[in-house]
Amino acid sequence: MPKHLDKLLNRTTGLTAATALFSLMWLTLIDVVGRKFFNNSVPGGLELTEILMVIVIFSALPLVSWRNEHVVFDSLDAFIPHWLKSTQMRLVHLISGAVFGFLARLMAMRAERFAEYGDTTVHLQLSIAPVAWIMTALLVVTALVHFLFMFKPNMSANHENSASGAQS
Questions:
Q1: 130: part of which helix (H) or strand (E)?
Q2: For residue 164, what are the contacts with CB-CB under 8 A and spacing of at least 6?
Q3: Where do the Tripartite ATP-independent periplasmic transporters DctQ component domain residues begin and end (predicted)?
């Protein structure tokens, strides 16, 4: 199951983040060249940049959670008994999953409001609601990853060990 889920996350959220980042790179290049040599920037370039940045950041969240690559405060880990670490890990994943789930709920309410009011970007008149729904879905996936780790702490510990081994 972990390998299948790893493959699925890489092929969906990882590919989405990579594609958005690649698009952002080309948009920036074209915009800078246009301003420098043609005295004209990409119309709506700022709006497209904002949308692509949202996609990059929120698409990366499930992968970062899956690989346990969040910023970690581990200065007190040496003082925590081994028997408590499993409980600590479950609690951290419970809180993280709950926070991401709460953020997903807030974003869903915002997406509903965007759709109801027909909010769009200023220059290109792109609907904002689909972007908010994408953010909601990615927050839900991130919350589910944390809840999965909460119920399967051995898988989380294995991921932590493999991540630290890859960094060494």
A1: helix 129-151
A2: none
A3: 25-148
Residue in the structure block whose two tokens are 């419970």: 94
Is the residue at 143 inside a domain?
yes
State which residues form the domain around 89: 3-70+80-155
- How many domains does one find in the chain? 1
Residue 106 maps to a domain: yes
Question: pLDDT for 117-147, tens place per residue?
Answer: 999 999 999 999 999 999 999 999 999 999 9
In one letter, which amino acid is 80?
A: I
Is 132 within a domain? yes
56 contacts 149 by C-beta, under 8 angstroms: no
- What digits encode the pLDDT tens for the residues 8-54? 998 999 999 999 999 999 999 999 999 999 999 999 999 999 999 99
Residue 161 within a domain: no
In the block, residue with structure tokens 């008994």: 81
Inter-residue contact 79 to 129 (CB < 8 Å): no
